[in-house]
């Protein structure tokens, strides 16, 4: 890499980071998910705005190929891995064993029905207008089904924290359902990504070594590989949990916070690399490592994970979301009516099925409606689903734009609805008072971090 290319890489990263933090903080100030602001920061630097005003500058800073494109792309990939890792860690802190029947019924209804609708939708629409360069309709079908069924844990938990209902029974049910749904849908997404990766011509990976060729064999292999990977990782985590913990050492010791961060990063990267070879999505590997870390009793508030999460939230993850905005082209790759129709179908399918599940679980009509809207927020998981499927060539640029906008719009709707629910006293029985008139419109009193997607 020449000095000119190095300068361009560093300048591109600096601009992405500055734009992400500036717009993210602006959104947080107005009690909006900062992830949306971070995407908007990248949108301004991409083909939608800068590319229209100064196309030469935009192409010089953010070329599609070459050494200059490699640097930001690597940070983007690391940001996605760390985002999924921290999301996995948080699973333990939000999962509740109470209300088990309600959680099970709502999760099954709220996931199975929208997923089935997504599978049927592919039979109705013309996939030629949606499929990406990989030209894999089966993988596209799985992605669309996941996009309709997915729920965001980070965004909805951040919203409920900001409006003061995070400790309510309602919040525990919402987050418990979201945990179950995200684990299952991450497995399905990993299968879709593995099918596309296995179809590559580079002859790399276990699937190629075993001679897996046909579409049915590829789907079967990657389904088994994803499940077996999860089980093996769980057994390893249980075995490591029984080992004696090393004594805390000095600053350079393996037991020190810095040493612990290095060990976790090494494990994360090694597992992600293993996933690439096995044909399992690396982001699923990162998610599982974080999930099992949480199951082992570690939380993001522990010193080592807190340091890792803090640096990831300050650098890698904002650059990741800004790069998502950078990929959006609202001028050439935005189908307004298809996007509106998709959002309506996705919202109705998810909200209606969650509402029916809540009613079957003997929840009141009002609470069932609140649960339905809260579980409709797609946030970060919806954005990750869109980006990884776009990068893998499963979806084209137009559908990528639609999926990103669906994640943003549904998150905004959930935040607005739950604030109205608090205002009408929906959670008064659990000790959450309705806001006073003079408090309306006040900014959030708690900092909102970059992982609130």
Can you tell me about this structure?
- With 453 residues, this protein is mainly α.
- It has one domain (3-242, 254-427): Up-down Bundle (Na+/H+ antiporter like fold).
- It has helices spanning 3-29, 34-45, 50-53, 55-61, 67-94, 100-124, 137-149, 153-162, 169-198, 206-210, 215-241, 257-278, 282-295, 303-327, 336-360, 365-374, 379-391, 397-423.
- The radius of gyration is 22 Å and the shape is globular.
- The model is unreliable at 249-254 and 440-452 (pLDDT under 50).
Distance between the termini: 34 Å
Backbone structural class: mainly alpha
Uncertain residue segments: 249-254, 440-452
- What is the strand content? under 5%
CATH class: Mainly Alpha
InterPro entries: Cation/H_exchanger_TM, CPA2_transporter, Na+/solute_symporter_sf
Organism: Streptomyces caeruleatus
Keywords: Ion transport, Membrane, Transmembrane, Transmembrane helix, Transport
Subcellular location: Membrane
List keywords for this structure.
453 residues, mainly alpha, Na+/H+ antiporter like fold, ion transport, Na+/solute_symporter_sf, antiporter activity, Cation/H_exchanger_TM, membrane
